[in-house]
Amino acid sequence: MNNKRREDNRVLYYADKLKKKIYYGVPQYIHYVYSLHYMKRNRKIINKKISNREILNVVFIIQYIPGWNKLEPIYSKMKADHRYNPIIVCVPLDINNHVYSGGKYNDTYDYFIEHGYDVINALDGQGEWFDLKQLNPDYVFHSRPYNNFMPKPYTSKSIQKYALICNVMYGATLTVNGQNVEMGKDYYNDVYCYFAFDKSEKKFYEERFLIGCKLKIQKCLTYGAIGLEQMLQARVTDNNNNSTFRKNVLWTPRWSTDPYIGGSNFFKYKDVILGLAKKNKDILFILRPHPLMFDNFVKTSEMTETEVIEFKKYCKAESNIILDEEKEYSKEFWESDFLITDISGILPEYFITQKPVIYCHSDVAFEYTEYASRMIETCYEAYDEKDLIKYFYELSDGKDVKASSRKDCIEDYFSKVHRSSQSIVNALAKKN
């Protein structure tokens, strides 16, 4: 597909998104006022339960499995806490505009059953959605903050009428651009308590939801970075993994080239990465694209379905390339030697392993958050193909001159993450 046609299609796609944003703005504000009313009422009900020492029902609506590591530490601690009754409800992944066309199959439910969890299937077997009200929930967590990908009864707009919604971001937010998108008002207008990563993120939240925070109906606590806590718990001490390869290298391209939320270097470095794999058969290349990447590129006409199929076929045929589309990645992070990545919410999770990172800058002029700027400074920053190849060979040979500065950055910003989930559990059991 030629570049001009690809660019024209992208312009039309994002122009349509802008029109929708303006159209839905006014009703959203009206809904926000009603949502604050429900929050205030629901908070009184929960405070009464806390005073009477009743057990709090907490529902975890899980759909996006890579985001489970942000909630699993909270769930596990609540499971062992007499004050809580935590419940997992599994929603299938492929839902768009609230519509699911997968029949009775629930991939999320199957995944959790296979891993030994006691969970509820959101599909009740009759093609209907399980009624969450039966669980009498006090607090509800979603695995990601996008109503569009939920059935209508499970959206924040429906749930906020009878329960308080809490949120931990499903991935770390590294830019102000990302905060604007990921903390969208369509969902967060209904969030009672957001657990932020740091003070700057708390400040952003309180300014964005000024009315609710000023009225002390909504609140934000700096108990985030839960994914980092889970990553440390999942640490693999034996990095050998009986691999026949000299090094294991991860590549995680971003899912979108959209200048506002994207910056993907997939097209820029695809041939470079494949070329390095061809020249270095003693190194294993694990390509781990975002779950939305290929579908998004087809949707925006940046790739055809045939091109996606051919790319996947090529990777499968190569002896030292794995196209990893599995849902869990903690073990893979610990068993790798270094990461090549675009801007991504998984960067802090990999960073805390203390392994080196080649950070690929894009043409997008991101406004990084404070901790992200410091973190990226301790990565190997690639601006072009020459930089990427240079750092690849240096790290492949074990030359890691930034190891000490990475360790200092981790100490400054991530030294307290192991206490995050317990702080959240304690906070939700207090009257307020």
From TrEMBL:
It comes from the Bacteria. SUPFAM superfamilies: UDP-Glycosyltransferase/glycogen phosphorylase. InterPro entries: Glycerophosphate_synth (IPR007554), TagF_C (IPR043148). Pfam families: Glyphos_transf (PF04464). This is CDP-glycerol glycerophosphotransferase family protein. It comes from Coprococcus intestinihominis.
